[in-house]
Design goal:
This protein has about 130 residues and is mainly alpha-helical.
Length: about 130
């Protein structure tokens, strides 16, 4: 009889231990996801600021009559090339922001799923 009780206690403790291990693994995964989401958010903010600066910046040479007397008037082809370069940089920043937003959203969904699993396992362990 004592052996049966001992075996039942061992089985129960190993069952609880495996759930505790699973919770710890999920918590580690949650921390990893949160750190990655934070890094993605920081990248998003930096690129957003670069894009904002690119949009708001205007070269003095882009506007006719805005050039100082000491600055030579640029050629038309040079002005067009600069405008195209600026437009391409803005498009690149926009695409990168879209990519980062999508990645951040998927990490947020993953974080939510991990939190639900942790809560479920903790409820099972408490019962």
């Amino acid at each position: 009889m004592k052996i049966l009780i001992f075996l039942l206690l061992m089985a129960f403790s190993s069952f609880c231990w495996s759930e505790d291990d699973r919770v710890m693994q999920l918590e580690k995964a949650l921390i990893r996801v949160q750190q990655e989401a934070q890094a993605i958010h920081q990248q998003f903010l930096m690129i957003q600021e670069l894009r904002r600066n690119e949009i708001s910046s205007s070269d003095a040479t882009d506007l006719p009559g805005a050039a100082a007397q000491t600055t030579p008037i640029p050629k038309y082809e040079e002005m067009v090339r600069r405008q195209e370069d600026k437009k391409n940089r803005i498009a690149k920043y926009t695409a990168e922001l879209d990519h980062l937003y999508t990645r951040f959203s998927s990490l947020n969904e993953e974080r939510q799923a991990l939190m639900e699993q942790i809560e479920l396992l903790e409820k099972k362990t408490a019962e």
